[in-house]
Amino acid sequence: MGIWALPSEVDAVLRQFRTCELTTLSKSGTPTTWPASARYLPEQGRFLLTTSIGFAQKAFNIRRNPKVSMLYSDPTGSGLHSPPAVLVQGEGVVSDQFVTAVEGLEDYWRETIFGRQPTTGFFSSNFISRWLMDWNFMRLIIQITPRSILWWPGGNFTQPAQQIQVSHVEAAY
């Protein structure tokens, strides 16, 4: 259990879902959504994502406007049956430097990148692939601090959402 008092079924979604839909706001204020793999860090009160410098638009958007949301709506591969749909609304921060090594992010790479995206292991094991796609391994770190978490039991969006306001926790980025 982390610093949030979440129902066990919501906690399970945040721990076991393979992907979420990350939404940021573009320069014009238009919501833009991408599939993303986020690592749930309840003991730190935040979520960890990375993005390749080759696909940095989400990082640009977050730097311009930190308001983000992550919708966990597709249980494929999670092993959960009839889980709630979970919406996390919060603020994102993007690191000023990009990382080129796994050091310090071992758990993220093992569980989130290689565990949830197995083809990454195939491409990263091949020297030629790593050389041709080195930009994919140069990553910006995104930290998301939730402000509210909403969920719909059984993923039923026709019912009102249940909600918890997440109290502000100072986290070291």
Average of per-residue pLDDT values: 83
Q: What order do the SSEs take from the amino end to the carboxyl end, as H and E?
A: HEEEEHEEHHHHEE
Individual helix count: 6
Coarse structural class: alpha+beta
Low-confidence stretches: 169-173
Q: What percent strand?
A: 35-45%
CA radius of gyration: 16 Å
How far do the termini sit from each other?
A: 21 Å
The residue fraction in helices comes out at: 10-25%
The coarse overall form would be globular
Biggest beta sheet summary? 8 strands, antiparallel
* Count of strand segments: 8
Gist of the model:
The protein is of the alpha+beta class. The protein has helices at 8-16, 57-64, 106-114, 118-124, 127-132, 134-137; strands at 20-25, 31-36, 39-41, 46-52, 67-72, 85-99, 139-152, 162-165.
List strands and helices in order, with pairings:
Blueprint: H1 8-16, E1 20-25, E2 31-36, E3 39-41, E4 46-52, H2 57-64, E5 67-72, E6 85-99, H3 106-114, H4 118-124, H5 127-132, H6 134-137, E7 139-152, E8 162-165
Antiparallel strand pairs: 1-2, 1-5, 3-4, 4-7, 5-6, 6-7, 7-8
